[in-house]
Specification:
About 7% of the residues have low confidence. A five-stranded mixed β-sheet has the order 2-8-7-4-5, with no helix packed on it. Strands 1-3-6 form a three-stranded antiparallel β-sheet, with no helix packed on it. The longest helix is centred in the N-terminal third of the chain and has 19 residues. The N and C termini lie far apart (89 Å). With 147 residues, the protein is of the alpha+beta class. The protein has two domains: 36 residues; 96 residues, Immunoglobulin-like, CATH 2.60.40.1220. 16% of the residues lie in helices and 37% in strands.
């Protein structure tokens, strides 16, 4: 007796027959994928990313009082976040964070006393528990005004 056209095994080669484990694995994969797509945008994009920086990356600022501000794309846990400055001589100072800055902002002040290449290093904890780190490089020039 020949198999009918309705018999699915007619079209399936032996190497392509699905086992229960394969079907279950595919169902789980599709379910997880659908759940990730359905998440609200704030949860799907977990890591805090800088959207604005003062001083800006590769900018040149004058010696003296340095206003620091990093704006992130999401709220951050300020108590578990930090800023530090690496001076041209390699020494590093911790920046005290301003307590009155908005939820997605780290801000502080420092004195830029040495000319040369500086690094503003940051580490933030976003409210979903992801830690993000990075640095903003900038230059301090001897002139009293930005170039």
């Amino acid at each position: 007796m020949q198999p009918s056209l309705l018999d699915s095994s007619v079209f399936a080669a032996p190497e392509f027959r699905a086992t229960k484990q394969t079907v279950l694995a595919l169902a789980i994969l599709l379910g997880v994928s659908a759940a990730v797509i359905a998440l609200p945008p704030g949860i799907a994009r977990a890591h805090a990313i800088i959207v604005a920086a003062q001083p800006a990356m590769n900018s040149t600022v004058a010696r003296g009082e340095l206003e620091i501000r990093l704006d992130f794309n999401s709220q951050i846990d300020r108590k578990r976040s930090r800023l530090s400055l690496q001076r041209p001589d390699g020494s590093e100072i911790i920046i005290a964070l301003a307590s009155d800055s908005p939820a997605g902002v780290l801000a502080g002040q420092a004195q830029a006393t040495l000319s040369g290449s500086w690094k503003l290093r940051w580490q933030v904890l976003s409210l979903d528990g992801h830690i993000t780190r990075g640095e903003v490089r900038f230059f301090v020039h001897e002139l009293d005004r930005p170039r």
